[in-house]
Amino acid sequence: MEANINIKEALFSAAQDLLKVQIQDIQKQLIDLQESSESEEKSSAGDKYETHQEMLNQSRKMLEQALEKHKFMLAQLNAISTKKIDKVEEGALVKLNIGTLWISIALGKISLNDSDYQLVSKDSPLISVIYNLKKGDIYEFRGKKAEILEVL
After folding, report:
1. Residue 112 gets which letter from DSSP?
2. Which residues does UniProt call coiled coil (predicted)?
3. SS3 call for 134
4. What does residue 20 show for φ and ψ, rounded to 5 degrees?
5. Which residues, other chains included, contact 27 with Cβ-Cβ below 8 Å and sequence gap of 6+?
6. Which one of 11, 89, 91, 111 has the largest count of C-beta atoms within 10 Å of its C-beta?
7. What's the pLDDT tens digit per position in 43-56?
8. What does DSSP say about strands 144-147 and 138-141: parallel, antiparallel, or unpaired?
9. 33 with 60: CB under 8 angstroms?
10. Which residues contact 56 (CB under 8 A, 6 or more apart)?
């Protein structure tokens, strides 16, 4: 793993881009849903119309909740520091035997330069166990002991 801040900056940028694309996709789905609702109003009446409208309302509510969640995650991401850190805390890039984690937001895997990084929340069970530990510290998680290989 490259020992520099550029990895964090690249992860930050990739995560921002991913969230922005997801937000745009949700917004487009909301627009499409609105257009579908308007066209249905012009062509339907009775029970079919009521059922369709209820389904559209449920879909709209789910999309609006997803949009809020993604906007919140983007705001959380924007608050994360990319400076070098020497202990496991929010903003740290942590290399473990199971892979490399960036403690930021729960976004999942991002691949950069033929390496995979897991973006995880500081509230994840593993991070709760290793929080404030440093390179070389041993921890136990789910009955297995392991070492923190690197913290950036």
Report:
1. E
2. 16-69
3. strand
4. -65, -40
5. 67
6. 11
7. 555 667 778 788 88
8. antiparallel
9. yes
10. 33, 36, 37, 40
Rounded Cα distance, 102 and 88, in Å: 10
What are the CA-CA distances from residue 106 to residues 19, 70, 89 (Å)? 12, 11, 14
Q: What is the DSSP pairing of strand 108-112 with strand 99-103? A: unpaired
Span 114-145, pLDDT tens digits: 999 999 999 999 999 999 999 999 999 999 99
Write the single-letter amino acid at 47. D
- Using only C-alpha atoms, the chain has a radius of gyration, in whole angstroms, of 21
pTM of the model: 0.86
Question: 71-85, pLDDT tens digit by residue?
Answer: 999 999 999 999 999
Do residues 59 and 52 make contact, with C-beta atoms less than 8 angstroms apart? no
E strands along the chain, which residues? 93-96, 99-103, 108-112, 115-120, 138-141, 144-147, 150-151
CB 118, CB 99: distance < 8 Å: yes
Q: How far is CA 105 from CA 22, 40, 43, in A?
A: 15, 39, 44
Helix ranges (DSSP H) in 79-150: 125-130
Q: Which residue has the tokens 């973006």?
A: 119
